[in-house]
Amino acid sequence: MRMAVLAGFLIGxxxxxxxxxxxxxxxxxxxxxxxxPTESDRDLFARIQxxxxxxxxxxxxxxxxLEAGFRAQVLSAQRLAGxxxxxxxxxxxxxxxxxxxxxxxxxxxxxxxxxxxxxxxEAFSSSATAEAxxxxxRSALRALxxxxxxxITVPAPPAAExxxxxxxxxxxxxxxxxxxxxxxSMVGWQVALDGHSALGQNGLVARLGVARGHLEGSLSxxxxxxxxxxxxxxxxxxxxxxxxxxxxxxPWAFGNLRVSIGASVGAAGYSRSTLALEPSVRAAPSRxxxxxxxxxxxxxxxxxxxxxxxxxxxxxxxxxVVVGAPQLGYQVGDEFVTRYRLWPVTPRAGLGLVVRTD
Length: 358
Prior knowledge:
By secondary structure, the protein is of the alpha+beta class. Helices cover about 20% and strands about 50% of the residues. The chain has 2 domains: about 10-175, Anticodon-binding domain (Rossmann fold, 3-Layer(aba) Sandwich); about 180-355, Porin (Beta Barrel), CATH 2.40.160.20. It has helices at about 1-15, 40-50, 70-85, 125-145, 170-180, and strands at about 30-35, 55-60, 90-95, 100-105, 110-115, 150-155, 180-190, 200-210, 215-225, 225-230, 235-255, 255-275, 285-305, 310-325, 325-330, 335-340, 345-355. The strands form 3 sheets. Strands 7-8-9-11-12-13-14-17 form an 8-stranded antiparallel beta barrel. Strands 2-1-3-4-5-6 form a 6-stranded mixed sheet, sandwiched between helices. A two-stranded antiparallel sheet has the order 15-16. The termini are far apart.
């Protein structure tokens, strides 16, 4: 009994010492250092322990004071990772309103995740904000343990930090400067519903985009195969081709999974050719009608390899608002009789192979 009490006392005493691991790394366990210079940080660390208890993660602590300036903090994270054989270093900063900025760095990959959590005025707001910060750390560790990536690439700062008198740069300024440019291309298949084609407008779609941080601009083009509209008197072959510019924002990425939301604006070209099936009907010459299109879209992509040149599968769901969607019909004397009124709001879906170079 005395030995058990003594053992419990020793374990608790060792756990309270700076830098002593609260979990022992087993095999390929991910080792993370959490910087806890203040009592509030130590309370937050306890929450992180609870949030990561089911993960194969070994947590270490560092009680040293936090440096002024994001570059100095990143450099310190590199040193801590090297001296403690850790893959991840996390630290926190608080503002006057009670908000928390969470930093999770992977020095070996030169990547840093930054999340700003704002405090609300509701009761127990500080506790809720701290719990949210712990969840951010858990999500980052879980993504890395699964082979994913976090944050964006931040070039390693030089050993000599900001000179005396130079104001330390904020994390936001450093991340804007460090955000890399990534190229993205996609080739796939797309279906757009026009309200009359039995299987919709099917065709090939291609997109070329450039991204920086969470934003992406792109140019896309679609070439559809003709669909047949037959009413017994005529056979109309109709195909819709698109060219559009898009802007998307990626609000969420977890491991190999990326979700983007955005909007596009461009032109839709409806190509029509007609074959008369009755002698009393004369087919009108082939024609292409161009209409303006604009609308929202959402994309979800799964990368086979999350770093470098990644290849993956991407699914797209969108709605196009077509301004001036054409109507097809018969000219009887001076009167136009509508036979097909194409939808002005057209849902579309696509699936393709995407290649992204970070």
